[in-house]
């Protein structure tokens, strides 16, 4: 059974810092990995999708990497802003369309 | 383009009542799925479908029923609601088994 762990569970940083969120998974037989943002009481907004054949994806200040052999993905946020405050979730898509989510990292960026 | 639409957004039920959460997508996606999210946790897969007439169980299927009669619609039925089913429910669709997931805004269910 696939297990996905996100560390840390919560993170507080001052505005302007660069930061890294971690996502690890136990079964490397995945099709893709997707990072989401969730604001309190809201739905999930897709940030980045990394196919299994890719090693990284970039969108603006966000960069996500994938290392299947070590079962890890990282989400790098450059020059953090208070508007980046949210919960960040990673999801691993494996066999037969079954996806497994981590519990998320709640980020607070202080002005 | 509406994307994935869920109704209702909020619902309060009494224990033992039944109800259906609706999910519709207008992107002609083959893959659709239902998740529940409990406080402080990630999403857990309830049921999913890889096309009209085909459904399968996810991680937490007990107490829920689904059907997929059309490509667009994937309703989730609670047969006899229990307090343990109090949660936020999300519907998602994808163009393929391995494609990007697109989510609805969620349905908040409280069972008293």
Description of the molecule:
The complex is a heterodimer of chains A (111) and B (112). Chain A has 111 residues and is an all-beta fold. Chain A has strands at 4-7, 10-14, 19-25, 32-38, 44-51, 56-59, 62-67, 72-77, 86-93, 99-101, 105-110. The radius of gyration of chain A is 13 Å and the shape is globular. In chain A, 37% of the residues are buried. The model of chain A has no long low-confidence stretch (mean pLDDT 93). In chain B, strands 2, 4, 5, 6, 9, 10 and 11 form a 7-stranded mixed sheet that branches. In chain B, strands 1-3-8-7 form a 4-stranded antiparallel sheet, with no helix packed on it. In chain B, strand 4 (31-37) and strand 5 form a beta hairpin. Chain B contains no helices and 11 strands. Chain B is an all-beta fold and 112 residues long.
Number of helices of chain A: 0
| SSE topology string of chain A | EEEEEEEEEEE
Question: What's the count of strands of chain B?
Answer: 11
* Shape annotation of chain B: globular
Q: What average pLDDT do the residues of chain A reach?
A: 93
Helical percentage of chain A: under 10%
Shape of chain A: globular
* Major β-sheet profile of chain A: 6 strands, mixed
Total count of strands of chain A: 11
Distance between the termini of chain B: 36 Å
């Amino acid at each position: 059974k696939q297990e996905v762990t996100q560390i840390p569970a919560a993170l507080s940083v001052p505005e302007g810092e660069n930061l890294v969120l971690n996502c690890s998974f136990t079964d490397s037989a995945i099709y893709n990995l997707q990072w989401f943002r969730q604001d309190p009481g809201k739905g999930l907004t897709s940030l980045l999708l990394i196919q299994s054949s890719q090693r990284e994806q970039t969108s603006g200040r966000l960069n996500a990497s994938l290392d299947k052999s070590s079962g890890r993905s990282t989400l790098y946020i450059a020059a953090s802003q208070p508007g980046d405050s949210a919960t960040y979730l990673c999801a691993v898509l494996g066999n037969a369309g079954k996806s497994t989510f981590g519990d998320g990292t709640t980020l607070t960026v202080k002005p | 383009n509406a994307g994935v639409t869920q109704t209702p957004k909020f619902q309060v039920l009494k224990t033992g009542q039944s109800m259906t959460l609706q999910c519709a997508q207008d992107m002609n996606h083959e893959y659709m799925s239902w998740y529940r999210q409990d406080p402080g946790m990630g999403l857990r897969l309830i049921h999913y479908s890889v096309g009209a007439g085909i459904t399968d169980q996810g991680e937490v299927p007990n107490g829920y029923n689904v059907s997929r009669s059309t490509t667009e619609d994937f309703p989730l039925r609670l047969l006899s609601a229990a307090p343990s089913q109090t949660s936020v429910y999300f519907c998602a669709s994808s163009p393929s088994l391995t494609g990007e997931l697109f989510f609805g805004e969620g349905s908040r269910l409280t069972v008293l």
